[in-house]
Amino acid sequence: MRVTIRAPRAEDEGAYAEAVRRSAEHIGRWNPVEPDALPDLLERQGPGLQTFLIVDLETGGLVGKVNVANIVMGRFCNGSLGYDSYLPFAGTGRMTEGMRLVLDRCFAGQPEGGLGLHRLEINVQPDNGRSIALAKRLGFRHEGFTPRMLFLQGAWRDHERFALTAEEWPGSAAVDDRG
Ligand SMILES: CC(C)(COP(=O)(O)OP(=O)(O)OC[C@H]1O[C@@H](n2cnc3c(N)ncnc32)[C@H](O)[C@@H]1OP(=O)(O)O)[C@@H](O)C(=O)NCCC(=O)NCCS
């Protein structure tokens, strides 16, 4: 294991801005990210949005960021994943390792410090091959096609929808005890 995950904090602001700026070309086309937006992201953390940073264990460098957004509990227990990886770690497999840890945390029950989710969704633009590869590598199923789903780079963009439920995630106790 080369990475760990943790919540972002105010001290990460500088390193985060540098990582996003350094990686602008790599992430920009797909997921426009504002380098100086960490304080705003920290303020928005709450029951509907939980962010994880993936950190390289050897150097402490930022490998990537994962937003678990649109979290709805009750009978849905669902969240949507958004993510980006940063240079020089992109393409080294560390993002995939970190995502596995995030999924463990998402599907773990709340008493165990997890988010207690039952279903996770990833929505990807059809020609974003690296993101589709990541979703498939993690075992996400292709569920369907959602036309004009998100407003990105000046237009409503179609997305392919992938999903995974707790029953499909190795090691997770399937969530069947919420009455
Ligand atoms: C999508 C994204 C997060 C994927 O991240 P990544 O950095 O490619 O993720 P990883 O490094 O874990 O990917 C593994 C790749 O590294 C390679 N790799 C190299 N060394 C590896 C190792 N030791 N172990 C595993 N994989 C390794 C794998 O072969 C794989 O390449 P492949 O997909 O060509 O087969 C990244 O491309 C990104 O930030 N894109 C822009 C933003 C974006 O699209 N966000 C998602 C919107 S839906």
Automatic annotation (TrEMBL):
Keyword Acyltransferase: yes
InterPro entries, A to Z: Acyl_CoA_acyltransferase, GNAT_dom, Ribosomal_N-acetyltransferase
EC number: 2.3.-.-
One Pfam family this sequence matches: Acetyltransf_3
Keywords assigned by UniProt, alphabetized: Acyltransferase, Transferase
Broad class of enzyme this protein falls into: transferase
GO molecular function terms noted in the UniProt entry: acyltransferase activity
All copies of domain N-acetyltransferase, residue ranges: 2-141
Name of this chain's protein: GNAT family N-acetyltransferase
